[in-house]
Amino acid sequence: MVGIHATTASDSKSALNIDQIAITPNDLGKVPQLVNKVEMLGNALASGQANARLQLLDVTESLLASLETPRETILRYCWRNSTAFAMIETAIDLGVFRLLVESNEPRSVADLAAATGAELVLLQRMMRQLAAVGAVVETGCDEYTSNGFSTTLSESRYADAFPTITGTTNRSILSIPEFLKKTNYRNPSDGFNCPFQMGFDTKASFFGHLQENPVLGAQFNNLMSVYHQGRASWMDPSCYPVERLLTGARRGVDEVFLVDVGGGKGHDLNEFLTKWPTTPGRLVLQDQRAVLAEATGLNKAVEPMVHDFFTEQPIKGARSYFLHSVLHDWPDDVCQTILSQLKAAMTPGYSRLLINENIVSDSGAHWQATSLDLIMMGDFAGAERTESQWRELLETAGFKIIQIWTADKWSESLIECELP
Ligand SMILES: C[S@@+](CC[C@H](N)C(=O)[O-])C[C@H]1O[C@@H](n2cnc3c(N)ncnc32)[C@H](O)[C@@H]1O
């Protein structure tokens, strides 16, 4: 029987053993081997080897998990992560990170309290936790300065991740256990009836909720505009050879080279123009009206176009239609509707569909992909998909996958499709 736990007298012997296990490191036997790997990768990092830093991060995470006792692991999940999140969001709201960055010298808590209006004793408690989790640097008793993390959080494009996740996601995630219990552990499949509605006590979908809360919508768009940074981009030579699209692209003034469907504030097209400035044909950014109104930093060569991707695609016969982190927001049946509108607009033998998303490994998947998968489940009844799930989705929609391009296991892939 799923999800039912009853304690009986016969459990008491194993409970004694569990008490011992709870204070024993999770996997001490692995530690020497992991320490060796850390040393080896540290040397690789120092000699500039590509991806050594990312590999080192993964290994140090395994090292931490092996060294910790189960009791410590429980505290990390139940105490550290939630309180650190809350203190970071509060510090952002008070402007603490900006104050630290603006100052050339470390600042005392009394000074920060005077500048923010927060009560001294409250700020002391906050700053101690922020220092304990590495969000700021403690330079003396009740005195702090910024590091790279807090400096980044002084800028709203990055800091907005925290209020966005509070306003759209944390309550969805915390509702997942109750939602799944209520639905008898079925995979959520309706974006209007998923943990999001339970957590936020609303009938709205995720994007409807953003429309009802424009400040939150603007914060979400900021989050989307920066969250892919620091990874290989689909248009980099290490991922997708863009020359494949350039070769054979029609060069008339009306020809459209690339349509970014659900492209947010246009960061992908801006990046594209920086990396590929001599692109033939027009570049079109499509999204909802409120989102395009936020696209103030759009390159002048990009044409914004309000478009609902559930309706007929107005740009016919473009060289390419690009969907970045769009299909993961929707369950399969809704993706079929979005894909059908693109299929109807594409020219066989010429147009390409480019899907830029995670491909979740069937085994040994990275926590970033699995976590995002569950965020998609909680907020949208959507999903990060495995390769076989992508193939099934796209083949059912009537597309032929030409090739799947992946720079490395930490980056999103580019699924290149055409009409059969
Ligand atoms: C997860 S964001 C991805 C944004 C961008 N492609 C990126 O990768 O950063 C999904 C986008 O889909 C847009 N969207 C949602 N519903 C839409 C609709 N019906 N028509 C057009 N765009 C929509 C949202 O406004 C949002 O910008």
From TrEMBL:
PROSITE patterns per UniProt: SAM_OMT_II
- Protein name as annotated: S-adenosyl-L-methionine-dependent methyltransferase
Q: Where does the O-methyltransferase dimerisation domain start and stop, copy by copy? A: 86-145
Gene3D superfamilies, per database record:
Vaccinia Virus protein VP39 (3.40.50.150), Winged helix-like DNA-binding domain superfamily/Winged helix DNA-binding domain (1.10.10.10)
Domain of life of the source: Eukaryota
Assigned keywords, A-Z: Methyltransferase, S-adenosyl-L-methionine, Transferase
Q: Does the keyword Transferase apply?
A: yes
The UniProt GO MF terms for this protein read: O-methyltransferase activity; protein dimerization activity
Q: Does the keyword Cytoplasm apply?
A: no
Q: Name one GO biological process term.
A: secondary metabolite biosynthetic process
**Pfam families per the UniProt record, alphabetical:** Dimerisation, Methyltransf_2
Q: Where is the O-methyltransferase C-terminal domain?
A: 258-400
